[in-house]
Batch of 4 targets.
Target 1
Amino acid sequence: MLDFEIKSILGEKYKNGFFEKASSLSNILHKEGILVFNSFISPVGLIKIQKEAAILKPNSFKSSSEYNVYVSDYDDNFPPESPRNRIMSTTKKCIPNDLIPKGSILQKLYDSSYLKNFFCELLSKDNLYPYEDSLSSININYYDKGDALGWHFDNSDFTITLLVKNCIKGGIYEFFNDIRYKDGKEDYAFVERILNNEVYGTKVDSFEGDLMIFKGNKSIHQVTAVEEGERILVTFNYNEKMGVSLSEKSRKTFFGRI
């Protein structure tokens, strides 16, 4: 059962019986590559999380990272202008898990066995575990004017995010579902069309308090630059195995330390 404190911050339709729908929702996620749970957090809960995020922001680490769409090493078998090697970029500020108070609503949401069981059934996983390192399980990401997330495929099988604060203009999530492979091989030709702005993906209208789950390892995605205001996004990061740490390179890039 949901404990009282977690239940009190969830949106109305998630308080009773909704999580029993995981099996049917799993089919939608598999087909469409994304699920958006509108108003997952209640207005009261959202205010608490926004205040917490605002207090923590001065301690955030500002990062700027460059990578290719596949978030992998440069491949000499392809020219620099190939979609395999073209450079994307991301800029943001980030709070790592060890700076989030143990009594935080975010930590309680992440640790909730009821929610975790729902995610497991939804994603067809036997279990989900936190990262072994102290930085990577929950992250609060701040996108100010000019900050953006460039096109890429995720390495993980799934991503779970909570939009805490929406910017006034910009910051649009856009994706192409299940387009990574063609005839069992990387579809570089279609990715090139995406990077050349010859085709446009599905844009998601996100609202404060929405929880989103998507399968980013097969669906290329980006978040356009923030043009006005501030965008705050929390990522809940789980692993299928115990004892997994985020790579030292990634920790150094996103948190400034390991």
Target 2
Amino acid sequence: MARLRDHREFRGLKVSPLLVVAKAVLLAARRTPMINSTWDEQAGEVVVKHYVNLGIAAATPRGLVVPNVKDAQAMTLPDLARELDAVIATAREGRTQPAEMAGGTFTITNVGVFGIDGGTPIINPGESAILCMGAIRPQPWVVDDQVVPRQVMTLGLSFDHRHIDGATGSQFLADVAGIVADPGTALLF
């Protein structure tokens, strides 16, 4: 993240783990589009969305709200940073409007901000999956047969088993984790 912060495109923008995970989610959803779908009970079919309205769960003094960034898949990383900052700031100020929370297709919740390593979040109505980010902590990690300290975060995924099986959910989660661990792999998506 430090390297991103040094680029002129990010001057004045917040480059955070949420931004990196959000971009990883958007890229991984290309490979596993079923993650960004919904089950239409009346029609008895799965509806795959070809856009991502990325929900960001935000704890506010009034409770949890989940505004979403519309058409997040079409944004550059600096634009996504601006939009994430805007929806989070608006939520914390208690000014989120109902339209800003409507139409979400996938949500990220960050329980790590509370010092929690993981959780099992509940899927928002109309969506099929939610990603949970845990706290980032230094951990001993084996690299080339040596134990070295690394910053480690636990990711968790809740998804609708009516139409997303474990293999699909696991592939999506592995893709997100792979991009976060090695952002250069994003070029493969």
Target 3
Amino acid sequence: MGLIKKIGNALKKTREAFARKLDSLFSGGELDDDFYDELTDILISCDVGFEASEKIVDDLRLYARKEKIRKAEDVKLALKEIIAKMITELPSVDVQYPAVFTIIGVNGVGKTTSIGKLANYFKAKKKEVLLVAGDTFRAAASDQLTQWANRNKVRIVKHTEGADAAAVVFDGLSSAKAKKTDVTIIDTAGRLQTKVNLMEELRKIDKVICREYPEANRYNLIVLDATTGQNALSQIEHFNEYMHIDGIILTKIDGTAKGGVVITIADKLKVPVLYVGTGETIDDLEEFDAKEFVSNLF
């Protein structure tokens, strides 16, 4: 299945909720205060967020006034451009090798599955991949990661359950350097941002990577469940206090009408979505394309 079709299918629920309301709004009425108020409500209902929605509508109002826009179709095109600009202004990440990905996030967001998909993604690019089972807190976490390693036919470094996560990372990095591995993906314990001991563990892992593999290209990614909507913002803010977040893997976007949260994250936190889960199979992970995202919203 082509990328455009995958993204389109994943955004189906968001698009249906968004487009249906927009069509109704644009089908009649003048470009007056009531029109812009209703547009703000539509954006908020798709989880764009209050501040981002107001900013988008204010920009649209100014643009319409400046360009003397009267046709609904022209307003829709302007809206599309404003949203696209908001997302595309974020810096993209061009992965350089050797790369070390540290994957973080709360329990239940699809972190382990995302690691498996990410491994498959780089394997398809003919890269040598190593998984590091840094989640020593959750029972059977390393067993699940081992299953993904086997499916992808990649190496894995793991210790026994309850081992020191930083020690596992140390061994994983040693292996990656010795074998000149292209991509090292480190799993970490799924944690609530309120679990101080586990959050401090992230700091230890970060220090080990900086000390033991300073020449590596670092990418700290947070896995977010799109169905949580605005709650994703607080997760990013809290995790960012312990480990700088370079980008987002957005999961379960195919199961929600809250895809608008991508716009809020871009506007408020300036953290780019790098990968998006578009389904359930191992190859359902795609690089996020802002222009395709906005195109599919409409």
Target 4
Amino acid sequence: MKKTGFQAELPYERFLKHGAGSLTNAELLAIVLRTGTNRESATDLGRKILQIRDEHSTALSVLHDLTMEDLIEIDGIGEVKAVKILCLAELSKRMVSEKAGERQQFTKAPVVADCYMEKLRHEPHEKAYLLFLDNKLSLIAEEILSIGTVNRTLLDPREIYLRALRKKAVSILLLHNHPSGDPTPSADDIAVTKRVAKAGEIIGIPLIDHIVIGDGRYCSMKESGHLTNGG
């Protein structure tokens, strides 16, 4: 049956006439991809991306788990299109994190975990973040300390507090993820926390907490009793 009217419009045309809300997830991806192949439209490619893990899925959440290799296995998606999709996924994670962190005071671990959960729960490698806080425990800035295993060698208290002094932080907070999804702290996680906290007591910039992010779960060193000083 030949499609007419609204159904016959291409995603880009529909966007211009009716707005982004009129498009399906596959059609939104089609606009990012721009072109399809001789056999499939850009919308067909968008649908294939959404179905990489589940042939019946239409959920955009799959984008957070995809790799370059996953995407270029689809006929019609090369490196350039794969990079666009991966950047789109990263933008979505950052938007969620920034929105959650707007004007937030990091006085409680659940608040911090909410702000960083989507940003870190899908990461394939451990990432350690250093958060700089003002006198109201609001976020001044964040920096990545390391990518890889979080251990005592990589997280040097001297480097951490040099950065904190440059940012004029009143206090700091450490945060990293466990790609396994289990936020239970390792012996190294606990050791890092104690070393940084001890240095903070001397310098006068307390470590408020060290939070480990898992898949939908977190562990706070302060709540679990591994950090007894700080805010």
